[in-house]
Amino acid sequence: MTKTSLLTTATALLMAIALDTAQAGPAQKAVLEHFAALAKNADTGFQGFSAERGKKLFFDQHSGGKPETPSCTTCHGTDPTKSGRTRAGKEIKPMALSRTPERFSDLKKVEKWFRRNCRNVMGRECTPLEKGDFITFMANQ
Amino acid sequence: MLLKRGLRPFVALALSLALSLALARADLARAGNAKKRAPEKVFKEECGACHMPFPSYFLPAASWRAIMSGLEDHFGEDASLDEEVRKELEQFLVDHSARWKAGKNPPLRITELRWFRGEHGSMTRYRKRLSKRLGHEVKMSECTACHRDAERGYFDDD
Q: What is the least distance, in Å, from the CA of B81 to any CA of chain A?
């Protein structure tokens, strides 16, 4: 890649992240940058994350995972600004960053929950693109 | 010479200052190592993410080992952990486990232990009413639905 195109891509990436996450703090931005780099690696045509795609991922009914948890909404509820509930009955704080400001700030934690929950709901790992889209959606809720 | 009568209070003061400084440094060294969480904190956070962290002394070591070796299918959920954390948690649970020995098949559910069933029964009708009142299905594993201070180990308040 030429220096110019590299610079352009980097700027585009950063702008995409900046524009999509009005409320994200530095920790969330760092996590998003991590996924952006991975997404770019996987697909050179990567243009940035999309809250719309993230929203679809959250609300969709998936078939590859466990029948008891066909959707993220099964446990998190259909309103990201409200609490969800685990299958064991414990309350889950809202996914919306505006309600739970510490969300998506710890990469290890983020990776742990994506690993578990994508497997539960979809029967597979989420791609870096999906993870970034999801966080982008929730950062704007 | 230091222990001459007049100097004794000053020596005592100096020694106690030195001691408290040494202790403070040890404390700071521990606090500064912020990445290493105390095992009990790890237990409360990881084992309490989806349900109340069940008291480790309710199950014997063999049960905990069995549970901790199958976290990818933890009663139907993927509860997998990084190996380092998993090992630490398993050790914590085993260290604070019940002293009685499990038989050939270590029990995996506290709610199916004989003493537990003796205490509670199945409470089907009561749970139905409670589930309606609370707005979600209350399972026997949700101790805090009836035992408000269960997370602190108190179960006598029901």
A: 7
pLDDT at B33: 43
How many angstroms separate the CA atoms of B98 and B106, rounded?
Answer: 12
Using CA atoms, how far apart are residues A33 and A13, in angstroms rounded to an integer? 8
What's the CA dihedral at A126, A128, A134, A138 to 10 degrees?
A: 130
Inter-chain CB proximity B51 and A89 less than 8 Å: yes
What pLDDT shows up at residue B32? Answer: 42
* Identity at B27, one-letter amino acid code: D
B3-12, B21-30, B42-51: range with lowest mean pLDDT: B21-30
Question: What is d(CA B156, CA B158) in angstroms, rounded to the nearest whole number?
Answer: 6
Quick one: which H or E segment has residue B149?
A: none
Q: Which residues of A touch B (CB under 8 A)?
A: 66, 68, 85-90, 108, 112, 115-117, 119-120
Domain span(s) for CATH 1.10.760 in chain B: 31-108
Among candidates B2, B102, B5, B151, which has minimal Cα distance to A90? B151
CATH number of the domain at A97, please: 1.10.760.10
Contacts of B78 in chain A (CB under 8 A): 115-117, 119-120
The fold for domain B31-108 equals Cytochrome Bc1 Complex; Chain D, domain 2 (1.10.760)
Which chain B residues in 12-51 lie under 8 Å from chain A, judged by CB atoms? 48-51
- For residue B81, what is the nearest residue in chain A, using CA coordinates? A112
- The Cα A58–Cα A126 span in angstroms is 12
B5-24 average pLDDT score: 75
Q: How many domains does chain A have?
A: 1
Please tell me the distance from the alpha carbon of residue B108 to that of residue B46, in angstroms, as a whole number: 18
Give this complex's ipTM.
0.79
